[in-house]
């Protein structure tokens, strides 16, 4: 008899498994369809001995000290600030668009104040910001929108930005300063020995039993458990009774090059006519020293593993029907990017799981074991 059956060994399921096992002394069965733990953050050493991310680059960043310290219990950190360049007009220029981007593209030498004036002169102000196109043209105008966002978005999402929710392009804000970092969060780092190593430590608890290569529907009627936590696709759980929720997937094409470096930054975006959206070179992310280097090209597609929920009004209407159905499921919780059909960053998934853990504890009136844990920065913290 297990207290909890948790479907999905990515961040959402694994964090809940760790909390419930270590803090509430619950017996957990954690299952996953794939042959590994770690979900989409899974990394491994390829045949050339280079540490690569199987499902594309995952860079950890957060403004939450609580989340950073929580993961710090299971990994040492390597400080890393991600930089992205975009291949535009024959140049590699920083994205998000900033002072350096504008000056390089137009051969100017504008100050921070002058860059804001430049954006204002180009902007097409909108009364309402409803779509991803609105976000960009309202901020910087149509020319920069065409150069950096329009074609990239069409490739990435299979839709014109005018058909997508404003939240998509709002994730990449425009700047007037010279900050070339892709993220500006207070905490930016990579697990020193990789994500898979971190997950092994996260799940190293005698109360957690892991089964891989397992579809929960093949097992759910044979295993005795009290509560189900489901982080797979919510529409699949209900056998697609309201139709399939659309996702975007990615075809990854990896290549090892007999050279120490391939490109100047971790990722280069290709927002124009190329079939791929970006190229990532993993050694920038991991800090690994190796005489060769490994890169990956990303080709978005409508088919394949569900990576990105597509944020459109009509999709949310379908999801809300599933959400209503989910609320009536006894002793069942839905979580994660797939379980709640939301385009979450990694830290948001962890925050969601920590919040769900507290909700479960309160609902079941369970006593939480308050044993002090040392985080990686040496501070003692209580759950």
TrEMBL record:
<protein>
    <submittedName>
        <fullName>UDP-galactopyranose mutase</fullName>
        <ecNumber>5.4.99.9</ecNumber>
    </submittedName>
</protein>
<keyword id="KW-0285">Flavoprotein</keyword>
<keyword id="KW-0274">FAD</keyword>
<dbReference type="Pfam" id="PF13450">
    <property type="entry name" value="NAD_binding_8"/>
</dbReference>
<keyword id="KW-0413">Isomerase</keyword>
<feature type="domain" description="UDP-galactopyranose mutase C-terminal">
    <location>
        <begin position="147"/>
        <end position="343"/>
    </location>
</feature>
<comment type="similarity">
    <text>Belongs to the UDP-galactopyranose/dTDP-fucopyranose mutase family.</text>
</comment>
<dbReference type="InterPro" id="IPR015899">
    <property type="entry name" value="UDP-GalPyranose_mutase_C"/>
</dbReference>
<dbReference type="Pfam" id="PF03275">
    <property type="entry name" value="GLF"/>
</dbReference>
<dbReference type="GO" id="GO:0050660">
    <property type="term" value="F:flavin adenine dinucleotide binding"/>
</dbReference>
<dbReference type="GO" id="GO:0008767">
    <property type="term" value="F:UDP-galactopyranose mutase activity"/>
</dbReference>
<dbReference type="InterPro" id="IPR004379">
    <property type="entry name" value="UDP-GALP_mutase"/>
</dbReference>
<dbReference type="GO" id="GO:0005829">
    <property type="term" value="C:cytosol"/>
</dbReference>
């Amino acid at each position: 008899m297990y207290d909890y059956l948790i479907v999905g060994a990515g961040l959402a399921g694994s964090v809940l498994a760790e909390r419930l096992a270590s803090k509430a002394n619950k017996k957990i069965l954690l299952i996953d369809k794939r042959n590994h733990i770690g979900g989409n953050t899974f990394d491994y050493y390829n045949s050339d001995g280079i540490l690569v991310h199987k499902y594309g680059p995952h860079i950890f960043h957060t403004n939450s000290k609580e989340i950073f310290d929580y993961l710090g219990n299971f990994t040492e950190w390597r400080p890393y600030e991600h930089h992205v360049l975009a291949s535009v007009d024959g140049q590699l220029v920083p994205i998000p668009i900033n002072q350096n981007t504008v000056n390089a593209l137009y051969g100017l030498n504008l100050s921070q104040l002058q860059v804001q004036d430049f954006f204002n002169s180009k902007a097409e102000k909108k009364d309402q910001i409803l779509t991803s196109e609105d976000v960009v043209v309202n901020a910087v105008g149509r020319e920069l929108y065409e150069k950096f966002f329009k074609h990239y978005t069409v490739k990435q999402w299979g839709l014109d930005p005018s058909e997508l929710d404003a939240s998509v392009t709002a994730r990449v804000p425009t700047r007037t300063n010279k900050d070339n970092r892709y993220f500006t969060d207070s905490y930016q780092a990579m697990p020193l020995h990789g994500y898979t190593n971190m997950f092994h430590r996260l799940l190293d608890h005698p109360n957690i039993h892991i089964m891989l290569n397992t579809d929960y529907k093949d097992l759910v009627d044979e295993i005795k458990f009290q509560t189900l936590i489901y982080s797979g696709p919510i529409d699949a759980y209900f056998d697609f009774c309201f139709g399939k929720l659309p996702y975007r997937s990615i075809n990854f094409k990896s290549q090892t090059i007999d050279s120490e470096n391939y490109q100047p930054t971790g990722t280069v975006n290709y927002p124009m006519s190329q079939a791929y959206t970006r190229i990532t070179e993993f050694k920038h992310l991991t800090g690994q020293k190796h005489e060769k280097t490994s890169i990956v090209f990303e080709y978005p597609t409508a088919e394949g593993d569900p990576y990105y929920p597509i944020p459109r009004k009509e999709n949310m209407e379908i999801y809300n029907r599933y959400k209503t159905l989910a609320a009536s499921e006894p002793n069942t919780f839905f979580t994660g990017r797939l379980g709640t059909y939301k385009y979450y960053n990694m830290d948001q998934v962890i925050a969601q799981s920590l919040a769900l853990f507290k909700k479960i504890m309160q609902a079941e009136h369970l006593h939480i074991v308050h044993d002090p844990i040392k985080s990686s920065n040496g501070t003692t913290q209580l759950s």
